[in-house]
Amino acid sequence: MIAAVGHFEQDTAVERIGPGRWRAGASAAWNIGENANGGYAVSPVLRAMAELAEHPDPLSVTAHFLRPLRPDGRDLEITAEVVRAGRSLTVMRASLAHDGADRIVVLGGFGDLTARTAPGVVGHVALAPPRLAPPEECVPRAELAQGVDLPILERVDVRIDPASAVSGERDDAVMAGWIRFADGEPPTARNLFLFADAFPPSVVPRLGAVGWVPTLEMTVHVRARPAPGWIAARFECDDLADGRMIESGSLWDATGRLVARSRQLGLVLGG
Amino acid sequence: MIAAVGHFEQDTAVERIGPGRWRAGASAAWNIGENANGGYAVSPVLRAMAELAEHPDPLSVTAHFLRPLRPDGRDLEITAEVVRAGRSLTVMRASLAHDGADRIVVLGGFGDLTARTAPGVVGHVALAPPRLAPPEECVPRAELAQGVDLPILERVDVRIDPASAVSGERDDAVMAGWIRFADGEPPTARNLFLFADAFPPSVVPRLGAVGWVPTLEMTVHVRARPAPGWIAARFECDDLADGRMIESGSLWDATGRLVARSRQLGLVLGG
User: Fold this and answer.
1) What is the DSSP secondary-structure string of A186-239?
2) B125, B219, B242: residue with CB nearest A117
3) Contact A161, A133 (CB under 8 A)
4) Is A120's CB within 8 Å of B67's CB?
5) What is the ipTM for the molecules in this complex?
6) Which of A217, A225, A238 to mutate to test the interface with B (most CBs of B within 10 A)?
7) Other CB atoms closer than 10 Å to residue B184's CB: what's the count?
8) Residue A46 in this model has a pLDDT that exceeds 70
9) Quick one: which H or E segment has residue B42?
10) What value, to the nearest 5°, has the Cα angle with vertex B156 and ends B150 and B158?
């Protein structure tokens, strides 16, 4: 059964309290341990930015994670301002604060994913979806050793492809699988940032348990509005040096269409 | 002969004129047609950010290009502010204006590329450099049809691998080759943004001449300080839909070390 208003929609709602200012609740239901998942924490900021923008879809969103966000019942404070409102793109700065300290700063451009850039545009290049075992043959994330409580797994259903559901056994560092909201809420362009940040670190299949991998910065490019159903996802770390890794991800909807790309700079602290 | 102060160093100099405010000259020597190359235009902003940061190296820099910058002898105005100064990372917002209008907005984190994130860090993953013809067997960019004057080629020596020096003849969209400063100035962490934005569009080998491909947003992750000598570079567009493309790039120094990753959202307008 599909809820009339899903948990994600409800738990990322924002209320405008002044020019360029919003407040939002912070639910602990999307936590990784005691901290909010980063993709969830960015999501109310995207809602505020969407209220400000002339355009509906986040085309390019960069978030720097300054400090963890620990939901404690007190409101989040969001600010957002338009840097430039163009014909096809609105560029905005935004920030999320809690308990008097900035937690996330965002720079992003919103546009319309249903519009072409020019009438005469030619050329199409599409990254093919990965070969994955079907969701029912994948490993639910909750069954993997995590080293931390994951309340978020009550909200998102994450299934790991058997080839990725290993620890320190592979030469490559690839994490692939499926994701959807547990309550049946269909995916939208604005929740793909969350879906791009809800899988185990891609270094685990190669390095084994590495503990918490904090994200310093993450950029998500939304490429199309997703169709209802499972989202297939593939993340790879092909670049790790001195404890700093680049992880690149791609997400496809149930029709096989590429719907988002992600890239993050994260810290592998070890142990 | 290596100049005592190279052209790049000189043409990206900034002068602090107040708290969080700098002015800079804008040289037309780095132009693509009548507009400044985007990577060059970002570079004085990185200089200002480096003056503000506790840390020397740009680890993650995202720039949104709002409007073209046309150097006309008048100063550029740069603003930068620290969002958070942490132990290992300084996160900053910045902007570049000219003729009364913002041209570029930047969000970036600076750190120290010579420091490890933690003493016990294990694991190393390195992307291998591409197989390229040696620079002397590559095609100087100036010899390729460009459809636009490229004064910048007096400043940077760009050599295109023969496999990429084609127009509309390939199934893949890959642009690879070599780059260095024409005056012998050695590469640094702060000029890799320029080097990541100085090659022809990667869609050309597949689609043929596509005209100007404006960059909406570009993120560069610097991974290591480069050794002197040629930089090898490889860019690929594996995702183009409705005229919006994602181009991902990697740069390696003369020792074969991966020194930067890039990703941009660009517009293929066609014709």
Assistant:
1) PP-GGGHHHHTT-SPPTTHHHH-------EEEEEEEE-SPPPSS-EEEEEEEEE
2) B242
3) yes
4) no
5) 0.96
6) A217
7) 12
8) yes
9) helix B38-52
10) 85
User: Is A270 close to B240, i.e. CB distance below 8 A?
Assistant: no
pLDDT recorded at residue A116:
82
The owner of tokens 């420091």 is B115
- Greatest distance between any 2 Cα atoms in chain B: 54
- B49 contacts in A (CB within 8 Å)? none
- Closest to A94 measured CA to CA, from A80, A83, A84, A82: A80
Chain A positions in Cβ-Cβ contact with residue B241 (cut-off 8 Å): 124-126, 223-224, 258
pLDDT tens digits, A162-193: 999 999 999 999 999 999 999 999 999 999 99
DSSP state of A125: B
Yes or no, beta carbons of B117 and A242 under 8 Å apart:
yes
pLDDT at B263: 98
**A217-232 pLDDT per residue, tens:** 999 999 999 999 999 9
Nearest to A60 among B66, B216, B258 (CB): B216
B268 with A217: Cβ contact below 8 A:
no
Residue B95 has which token pair? 């902007």
B172: nearest CA partner in chain A: A125
Kindly tell me the sign of the dihedral angle through the C-alpha atoms of B8, B12, B15, B19. Answer: negative
- Alpha-carbon dihedral sign for residues A124, A130, A132, A135: negative
